Amino acid sequence: MMVIGDAAGLVDPLWGGGIGYAIRSGRTAGRTAVKAFDQQDFSKGFLKGYEVGWGNSQDGRSLQRSRILSRMLLGLSTVDRDVYIRFQGSVMRFGSSRVLSAIRKIMDAISARPPATTQ
Ligand SMILES: Cc1cc2nc3c(=O)[nH]c(=O)nc-3n(C[C@H](O)[C@H](O)[C@H](O)COP(=O)(O)OP(=O)(O)OC[C@H]3O[C@@H](n4cnc5c(N)ncnc54)[C@H](O)[C@@H]3O)c2cc1C
């Protein structure tokens, strides 16, 4: 079985967006289903290709970053969370591309680490 969209938990925990993830995970699952049909292999191992492919995709990595960030934000005090969000907002408005690129690199490094616990 392949699960997509909201049913698979593919919703950004920070902003609540899930329409794009639902569409693109459905497309990825559909492609995997076509391959499974071509090869007449509907085993769990074959269908797992969808999950692995999704996890490695830009969407999968972006969602992983949001999950990590939301866990970090939940661990902060209300004051620190407010400071972070204001900082992030300022960077978005006035920040140089170098600052944004550094933040992106940090987030990429964080999301490249294996998760401490699986969900
Ligand atoms: C108030 C609100 C605002 C949102 N705003 C945004 C936004 O601005 N941008 C964004 O990207 N995302 C937004 N989202 C999230 C987005 O709506 C979902 O992530 C997205 O619709 C998920 O698509 P889906 O196909 O996985 O599930 P759904 O859109 O929920 O589709 C599932 C469908 O399956 C049907 N169904 C359920 N059970 C059965 C059954 N047993 N048999 C047959 N059919 C069944 C349901 O009726 C439904 O039509 C919002 C969500 C909410 C609640």
Short structural description:
The chain has helices spanning 19-39, 44-56, 58-75, 78-94, 97-112. The chain is mainly α and 119 residues long.
Q: What distinguishing features does this structure have?
A:
mainly alpha, 119 residues, binds flavin-adenine dinucleotide, 0% strand, 5 helices, 71% helix, elongated
Give the class from helix and strand content and strand pairing.
mainly alpha
pLDDT below 50 for ≥5 consecutive residues: which ranges? none
Q: What is the chain-wise order of helices and strands?
A: HHHHH
In round numbers, the mean pLDDT is 82
Q: What is the general shape?
A: elongated
Q: Which range does the strand content fall in?
A: under 5%
Helical run tally: 5
Number of strands: 0
Domain unit count: 2
What are the distinct ligands in this entry? flavin-adenine dinucleotide
Gyration radius, to the nearest Å? Answer: 17 Å
Largest sheet: none
Helical fraction: over 70%
Separation, N- and C-terminal Cα atoms: 18 Å
Report on the architecture of this protein:
The protein is mainly α and about 120 residues long. It folds into 2 domains: about 1-75, no CATH class; about 75-119, no CATH class. The chain has helices spanning about 20-40, 45-55, 60-75, 80-95, 95-110. Helix 1 runs antiparallel to helix 2 (about 45-55) and helix 3 crosses helix 5 (about 95-110). The longest helix is centred in the first third of the chain and has 21 residues, at about 20-40. The chain is elongated, with a radius of gyration of 17 Å. The chain starts with 18 loop residues before the first helix and ends in a 7-residue tail after the last helix. The model has no long low-confidence stretch (mean pLDDT about 80). Flavin-adenine dinucleotide binds near residues 5, 16, 20 and 22.
